[in-house]
Specification:
- This protein is mainly beta and 254 residues long.
- The chain has one domain: Jelly Rolls (Sandwich), CATH 2.60.120.560.
- The chain is 6% helix and 37% strand.
- The chain has one helix and 17 strands.
- The chain has one helix at residues 5-19, and strands at 34-35, 42-43, 50-55, 67-68, 74-77, 84-87, 102-105, 114-122, 131-140, 143-150, 159-164, 169-170, 186-194, 199-204, 212-215, 223-228, 233-242.
- The strands form three sheets. Strands 3, 5, 6, 8, 13, 14, 15 and 17 form an eight-stranded antiparallel sheet that branches. A seven-stranded antiparallel sheet has the order 4-7-16-9-10-11-12, with no helix packed on it.
- It is globular, with a radius of gyration of 17 Å.
- 42% of the residues are buried.
Length: 254
Amino acid sequence: MHRTKTAALGAAMLLAACSGATRIDETPPLDQTLPFASGDQKLPSDSEWALVYSQDFSTEASIADYAFTQPARWTWNGEDGRGSLELLGASDYKPPFRSPTSIALVPGLLVADFDLEVELLQTGRNYGHRDMCLFFGFVTPAKYDYVHLATTPDEHAHNIFRVDGAPRAKLAEVGAQGIDWGENEWHRVRIERRTQAGTIRVFWDGAAEPILEAVDKGFEWGRLGFGSFDDSGRVAGVRVWAPESRAVEEAQPF
């Protein structure tokens, strides 16, 4: 059932009180921006829709309501005065099909169309599949889509993937190049999803053109999340804009 504006505002207040997150059902001022972790760049509030979720991970309590595949592999990090959700390394979680093992799902939020902006810091060793993942359309551990951002593209890396009752399958052609995570470098990632057109576009560090894109009408409503196939990293400055949002019925699906 769709939430009314009053119910949504009540849910937002409760969520904020419990976890430090903010749920908003009115368009924020244009100057509501977040300092970029590695410098003075900004995350632009340029979506056509209202801001429905934001999380700066300013306190340890801000990660309490996230759903994790293996909670012991996740922690809060407040280094350098910058709060973040940190993945410590590969999880022992065994998914039903070949797919990422480390997943942290945003609490209390279902979306279909959305714009997501987040800052990511990869902290693992440098190799071809050095990755971090962004999850969306998450329905169950056997049914969701995700973006895999890695150094070297191939059939199993640096693409948009779907898990649908089978091992993950890529939704786009293998590209010519991946991304450079660097060392101790924060990067800004934006995902734009439009379910009617079936488009999924992924942008890197504010570039005008997407680094990954696919057209595929798959799952509509689902949860959002962050993680990795088997690496480590940090997540900060989460912003989600959407024309509509719903409440999560099953808080802990794993």
